[in-house]
Amino acid sequence: SQRQAPSSSLGGPLLDSQLFVARINGAGAETVAPVVSGAFQPAVSPGGSEVAYFSRVSSGSGFASLYVKSLQTSAVRLVSSQCGLPGFALYPLEWVHQMLAWSPDGSLFFVEDSDEGSLLRRYHSHDGTTTNVTGLLRALVFDLYPSPAGDRLAYLLYHDRAFHVRERTLSSGEERVLQTWPNSSASEYQLRGWASTGGLVVVRRLVRPAADRPQMEVFVLEAGGARRVANIAGAYAVTAALRPRGAFMIAIERASASEA
């Protein structure tokens, strides 16, 4: 994804971007013509044959449209026009929440929003159909992470001034609340995916005493509850990312005054 000149009509530099395909060889990356213009937060399917992305027509809409494009035929399908706009951090400039996620079986999870609440849905790429994963949730829903086997879906829900980490068994619809944290003005939580041990990784942002003094806590949710595994001063939790297979995490740290 590459940003164009920021456009005020689209609401910010991350919302005004183009998607490219690049061929990688020994000399580096060779950029091909843009795949999609005016698209953001892309996610490539497990087999690499499709890309899902959001698009926003103008600042007059409070929603983003979700599209899936075939990288083989260039066919584009509109999946939903009722997706909430993903949040992003201005510094470091990056997406904050994962609002769409491919399952290992090639289906796509996403969230539809309305005045009544949020609805978790699943797009089935093989036949173009969409089904509901949950009923209407009168809460904010974000950070979708299918399990490595594709049999469960974890997500973060914010309701009644508290963050709830939930796990849903997709075959039965059984759902569990794994952890609940009350919200406060100095903290925010993000779900970051599945650890290599099978637990779920959650990061917490601490601001002490101001935004230029970040601190990140890292938790792993397992059968026995939440276990804190790291507390990193100067790290930005909102843009921390768990690497594939869940073995380690990457985070941006603020440079010291002598380095700035």
Helix proportion range: under 10%
Q: What is the helix/strand order?
A: EEEEEEEEEEEEEEEEEEEEEEE
- What is the β-strand count? 23
Strand order in the sheet with the most strands: 4-5-6-7
Query: Which shape, going by the Cα principal axes?
Result: globular
Quickly count the helices: 0
- Unreliably modeled segments: 1-11
Report strand %: over 45%
Radius of gyration: 19 Å
Oligomer: single chain
Query: Tell me about the biggest sheet?
Result: 4 strands, antiparallel
Specify the structural class: mainly beta
Provide the residue-averaged pLDDT.
Answer: 83
Distance between the termini: 28 Å
Would you give an account of this structure?
This protein has strands at 2-3, 17-25, 28-37, 39-44, 50-55, 63-70, 76-84, 88-90, 93-95, 100-102, 108-113, 118-124, 129-132, 140-146, 152-159, 162-169, 175-182, 187-194, 200-207, 214-222, 225-233, 241-242, 249-250. By secondary structure, the protein is mainly β. Strands 4-5-6-7 form a four-stranded antiparallel beta sheet, with no helix packed on it. The chain has a four-stranded antiparallel beta sheet with strand order 10-11-12-13, with no helix packed on it. Strands 14-15-16-17 form a four-stranded antiparallel beta sheet, with no helix packed on it. The protein is globular. The two termini are 28 Å apart. The relative contact order is 0.09. Mean pLDDT is 83; it is low at 1-11.
